[in-house]
Amino acid sequence: MSTVTSHARAALDESVEAGTVGDHLGTTEEAPGLLTERFACLLPGYRGWYWAVSVSVLDDESTINDIVLLPGDEAIVAPAWTPYRERIRPGDLGPGDVLPPEEDDIRLVPAWSAGDGDGTGVVDRHFAREIGLGREWVLSLEGREDAADRWYDGEAGPDTPIAKQAPGVCGTCGFLVSLAGDLSDRFGVCANKMANADGRVVALTHGCGAHSGTRPKRSASASQLPDPVIDTMRAELEEF
Question: Cα–Cα distances in Å, from 109 out to 105, 141, 142?
């Protein structure tokens, strides 16, 4: 064991709990005059970790810079940190939870720069901005199309099993509440309390068995009924 390694081992033994330092694992030259001496870690629960002692060497004199515990290739470590915004999923928000949009969220644009209506009322938007009325942000074109794609591909789209077997589409159903704006040509809101999609946005091409045009099917009855077991329709005379 070299003098530098012995110095590093002695400094490590003084700094950490006794019995937690194992064999010398090697030396790494980080830069000219800067070495890292590595020693096995014997701490319970730290299998595969090692002690790293940073040492500066100048004119055969060594100085201990730092001592850290680092994971090796076989160490068990926590998974990479995933930001909260990327971990949260639809339906995770509870009472009191907040999820502000990103500052550069492409789905939103200032209300004065674009509307989410039918393209009319530009003067009204400018007037509302001047007097401080109306919404500060509205859906951008990208935001609308993102929502449209999600709804169309979801449970209220045309490709679900219930829609494929429906007697009619939502666009012809009397329970459909029309939307206003750029999405009105593709979506509406179901107002049938007996339907699975009640109160939800549905594609006009979606459908279910609760369509307003659904009529009960008449079962095919036999053309001639068999004789009853007990005849209650005719009076029988008995002779005494």
Answer: 8, 9, 10
| Cα gap 217→223, rounded to integer Å | 18
Q: Which domains does the chain have, with CATH numbers?
A: 3-71 (3.10.450), 107-137 (no CATH), 143-203 (no CATH)
64 strand-pairing partners: 55
Task: Give counts: helices (H), strands (E), the chain.
Answer: 5, 9
Q: Cα dist. 227→46, 192, 224, 235, 236 in Å?
A: 88, 45, 9, 15, 15
Model confidence, pTM: 0.55
- Report the distance separating Cα 41 and Cα 69, nearest Å: 8
User: For the segment 7-58, what is each residue's pLDDT rounded down to a tens digit?
Assistant: 999 999 999 999 999 999 999 999 999 999 999 999 998 999 999 999 999 8
For residue 70, count other CB atoms closer than 10 A to its CB: 12
